[in-house]
Amino acid sequence: MQDLDRDAAHCLIVGIQGTEATPDELALVRRGIGGVILFARNIHDPAQVAELSRSLKAAAPGPLLVSIDQEGGRVQRLCGPHWTEWPNMRRLGVIDEAGGLDGLSGVAIADRVGRMIAVELAACGIDLDFAPVMDVDTNPDNPVIADRSFGRSPQRVAKLGVALAKGLESQGVASCAKHFPGHGDTSQDSHMTLPRLAHDKSRLWEVELVPFVAAARAGLASVMTAHVRFEAFESTPATLSSSAMRLLRDEVEFKGCCISDDLEMKAIADIYGIADAAELALEAGVDAVLICHTLAHQYDAIDGLARGARSGPLPRPRLAEAAARVAILQKFARPASAIDPASAKAACGTPEHKAFAEQLFDPASPVAERRRNDPTEWRA
């Protein structure tokens, strides 16, 4: 029965509260969780992030993934003068549509952005980037995706997303294509409520699924689910839908690790409860669940998964399969001994990275204006 407890813990990626892990959080790490996700609340400077990553990994009984959302634009947790600030992905789509920049194609630019992001993440001990966004920006009233997407063309989103992801993975940082099967056409934010889309499967194949098929063909490391209800599936959100997961595995043919979006988002937590949702997600076919904020929910989810596999309804082979996929993803997990906090600063926000990023911003953007008014902010 200890194997069930171990596998249950392995299927969690959790958030912690501060710039150092507390004794209770380290106890959870020692229980064998799959990974930790970092947010702005955990970030001070490169040496501190590297030391936090090192300490978390040193406490783990095996490989531990340290992860983060470093997309560019309004979703990048490592920001400020210590790191390189990147434009949103819509800007990369605009550059691609214009034929590239300074002799580089849009694909080459996305690949280079991925590589440079990965170098800075790796220096800080971070193994998994929850990027790129593979949602297609088809709804101008979307409150949560919008400029996080590469654009309105499914083919452009596919080619630029895969290029950025492969750039990340070429430098030893796992990518995560999100949010399957597509969050780009919603008019509601799943952080606040459960969005619904009436699209049938033919529409999904024409638009939303195109980037995820490309991700599958490229062999990307992981994919993240959307807390969106699709009328083409059950009445549950995709994260909890066995039909959505069968689509991902059997028809899209994605072979990597499937990770849920945060179960503490209101689209899930207010309707299903977090521990129950974790069990429902794994039963549907998700491999790892994100629980980003509350220690009690994290412990309850592990206990619930183990109990569900022990007594039902979660099949033990399904839990074992999920834990095995997390273990494959952990090939990206650096050991604690590979992280050097003293040298992290030198790899982050380098003149080369900042100069390249500066070329990519729209000259009319607020960021570019800020750079012109205070050029010292841009220096490494």
Keywords:
two-stranded antiparallel ribbon; 380 residues; TIM Barrel; 8-stranded parallel beta sheet; globular; alpha/beta; 16 helices
Order of helices and strands: HEHEHEEEHHEHEEHHEEHEHHEHHHHH
CATH architecture annotation: Alpha-Beta Barrel
**What percent of residues are in strands?**
5-15%
The rough form would be described as: globular
Rg over CA atoms, rounded to whole Å, is 20 Å
Average pLDDT, all residues: 94
**How is the largest sheet built, in terms of strand order?**
6-3-2-1-12-11-9-7
CATH superfamily: Glycoside hydrolase, family 3, N-terminal domain
End-to-end Cα distance, whole Å, is 52 Å
Low-pLDDT regions: none
* Helix fraction bin: 40-55%
User: How large is the count of helical segments?
Assistant: 16
Largest sheet: 8 strands, parallel
CATH level-1 class: Alpha Beta
Number of strands: 12
What is the CATH third-level topology name?
TIM Barrel
Secondary-structure class: alpha/beta
Q: How many structural domains in the coordinates? A: 1
